[in-house]
Structure formats: structure tokens, C-alpha cells
TrEMBL record:
Keyword Cell membrane (UniProt): no
Record protein name field: Subtilisin inhibitor domain-containing protein
Signal peptide: 1-22
Highest taxon, organism lineage: Bacteria
Record keywords, A-Z: Signal
Species assigned in the record: Egibacter rhizosphaerae
GO function terms (MF aspect): serine-type endopeptidase inhibitor activity
């Protein structure tokens, strides 16, 4: 009986030691991981009207966010990391606006834009115009990328 008690005692010690070691082996995470901006390489081409020169520039998101190319001053002065944070929602809103089955018949101006590239491994290709309510809605969703347009003229 004494042997049985010793075996149970030793087994209990081994189990307790194993549990204590296992607790130390599990890393404790105090802070949730930081949300990262989407990885994206987006090229933007904006044409104020059919006779104007197209302005081409790019937005890079991820580890080293930034603008490149001929980004207009009002876009280049926007912190790229902030624009990148909102990019997925803005791209989705523009897609929804352009996919609408009915659009208001209003003319917002001659401006056109192309937004192409890759965001989080997904292709992005949006052709935006301001010739109806759907295009105006898409432009407004992408305003940090495309810039404001009022009364048919680009605002610089």
C-alpha cells in the first residue's frame, strides 16, 4: 500500500511539474497585433477633359506607403498611410456606385479617371466618369485618389 501511495505521489508531482512547464511555454500576448494598411500598388490617371493632358501618378500602400509620379499637390500632401487605411472601403464604394443598375441622369463634368493595380492580391480596375450619378458617386468615393471636381472643372 505504501508503494501505491508513493507511485501516486510521484505521478502527482510529475503532472504538476509538466503543467507548470507548459504554462511557461505559452507566450502571453498583452496587445492585439496592429492592423496593417492593405498592401497595394495603385496607378491613377486623371483627365480633366478630353482636350487636357492626362495626369498620371501612383499610390503605394504597405510597409512604405507613398505617392509617386505627377501626383497633384493636394493629393501628394495627403498622408499616404491615411489614404491607404481607407482604400479598401473607398474601392468597394466606387465599385458599388459603378455597378448600380439605375443612375441619376445628371452631368457632373467631363473628368475621367482610371484606377488600376493590385490591392491585397486582388486586381483593381475602375474607369470613372462624371457623366451620371453613378460616376459622380464613384468619383466622390475615390476623392482622396482623384481629387475634387466641382462644376465640371478640376479643383487644384
Amino acid at each position: 500500500m505504501a508503494r501505491r501511495g508513493m507511485r501516486i505521489g510521484l505521478l502527482l508531482i510529475v503532472v504538476l511539474l509538466a503543467a507548470a512547464c507548459a504554462e511557461d511555454a505559452i507566450p502571453v500576448v498583452d496587445e492585439p497585433p496592429e492592423e496593417q494598411a492593405p498592401a497595394a500598388e495603385i496607378e491613377i490617371a486623371v483627365q480633366p477633359d478630353e482636350d487636357a493632358t492626362t495626369t498620371e501618378y501612383a499610390l503605394r500602400c504597405g510597409d512604405d506607403p507613398g505617392w509617386s509620379g505627377d501626383a497633384p499637390t493636394d493629393r501628394a500632401e495627403l498622408p499616404a498611410d491615411e489614404v491607404c487605411d481607407d482604400l479598401p472601403d473607398r474601392i468597394e464604394a466606387a465599385r458599388e456606385a459603378l455597378a448600380a443598375e439605375t443612375c441619376t441622369q445628371e452631368y457632373g463634368g467631363p473628368q475621367t479617371a482610371s484606377v488600376t493595380g493590385v490591392m491585397d492580391g486582388e486586381d483593381v480596375h475602375l474607369d470613372v466618369h462624371r457623366t451620371d450619378g453613378c460616376g459622380i458617386g464613384a468619383w466622390e468615393a475615390l476623392q482622396p485618389l482623384l481629387g475634387p471636381a466641382e462644376n465640371g472643372e478640376m479643383v487644384e
